[in-house]
Amino acid sequence: MQNSNIESYLKETLGLTAAVKPWAGKSTLPYFLNDAYEFADIELLGAHYVLMLDRDQSTTAARVRKDCDTLTKASGVLGIYVADNLSSYDRKRLVGQRVPFIIPGNQLYLPDLGIDLREYFRQRREAPEKVLSPATQVMLISALLRPWKAEVHPAELAMELGYTSMTVSRAVKELQNSGLATIVDVGRERWVHFKEDAKTIWRKALPLLRDPVKRSIWAVPVHSVQQQACLAGESALSQVTLLAEPKHPVYAISSEQWKNAQKQGMYTLPTPEQGAFRWQIWRYDPRINSINKSVDPLSLILSLRNERDERVQQALNEFENGLL
Asked: What is the pTM of this model?
């Protein structure tokens, strides 16, 4: 990667004349950082930063965030991640965790300077990003969690999920339009055919999948509501990893469940009081693919992927790697 590309991009997008210079502090950094990145010094609007130029372009967003923290602790200077390209999924994770990055000619995110420029993305220039509808997301997750079948009959999914044939039909079309699946005619029946293995489908679908949590609230539980709810968030993650349980339990319920809960006397608290739980109100019913009274593992990953707590991210990454 040429330093002149970075300088030209900053000049074109922000009108800043910034010189990229060698950084003298790299000798104070751990070996693994020097092995993974080239480092350079840059001054932007009177503040000094260290550019972290990715050598192999295969670093994950979680690793970048940890490396930026390590750099700052060792040098006292804020790092800016620089790469030739960045996937939509990793870009979202970095933005969600407020990690600054520069992709010369494509993207620029510098939250400390209040700058978030999203121009075009090399890997997907032809169309803006879209997300799957909640019903389609649920159906895809259901297919991924089952013993893997490359071909699935829509009626089978409809029966399992409790969806109408019309809802399933729309979901199948979305899967086809997203490029994740095709429709195969077998006699008079139409089957959903997934083009690749489950792990690949999951990775390709990630940019299209939404956070299942619409909003989070504090409320003291009613026993009958808690019995029907699913463990979620850090509470669910602590059941399957070494993460400590949170001080306040976290549960997930659907919008319909929350309406019923309010009828039973539950109400939103402005701050967490003694005995209060964190309640996540989901875009779809968290019980559909739940396992052992916890939300399904793939929805759990989606609900926590922008969590900034380093402990949570480390546990989540280990959980996701083990799951896949």
From this structure: 0.63
